[in-house]
Amino acid sequence: MQAAETLTGAAIPLSKPTGKTYRIEIKRQASPDAEPHWDKFDLPQRTGMNVISAMMEIAGNPVTTDGRATTPIAYDANCLEEVCGSCAMRINGKARMACSALIDKVQENGVVRVEPLSKMPVIRDLSVDRSVLFENLKRVQAWVPLDGSYDLGSGPRITPQQQEEAYPLSRCISCTICMEVCPQFNEETNFVGAATIAQAKLFNEHPTGKVLKTERLHALMGDGGIHECGFSGNCVTACPKMLPLTRAISEVSRDVMIQAAKDIFTR
Amino acid sequence: MAAVPRIIVVGGGLAGLSSVIKIAEAGGKVDLFSIVPVKRSHSVCAQGGINAAKNLKGEGDTTAAHFDDTIYGGDFLANQTPVKNMCDAAPAIIDLLDRMGVPFNRTPEGLLDFRRFGGTLYHRTAFAGATTGQQLLYALDEQVRRYESEGKVTKYEGWEFLSSVLDGQGVCRGICAMNLRDMSVRTFDADAIILATGGNGAIFGKSTNSVVCTGSAQSAIYQQGAYYANGEFIQVHPTCIPGEDKLRLMSESARGEGGRVWVPRKLNDPRDPVSIPEADRWYFLEEWYPKYGNLVPRDVATRAIHKVVYEHELGIDGQPMVYLDLTHIDAATLNRKLEGILEIYEKFVGDDPRKVPMKIFPGMHYTMGGLWVDFNQMTNIPGIFAAGEAEYNYHGANRLGANSLLSCIYGGFQAGPNALRYAKSLPAAASNGHGESERKRQEEINAGLLSSSGTENPFRLWRELGETMTKNVTVIRYNKALAETDEKIVELLERFRNINLSDKSAWANTSFAFTRQLYNMLQLGRVVTQGAKLRDESRGAHYKPDFPDRDDERFLKTTKATFAPDADEPVFSWEAVDTQYITPRPRRYDAVK
Question: How far is residue B191's CA from residue B204's CA, in Å, rounded to a whole number?
Answer without folding.
Answer: 35
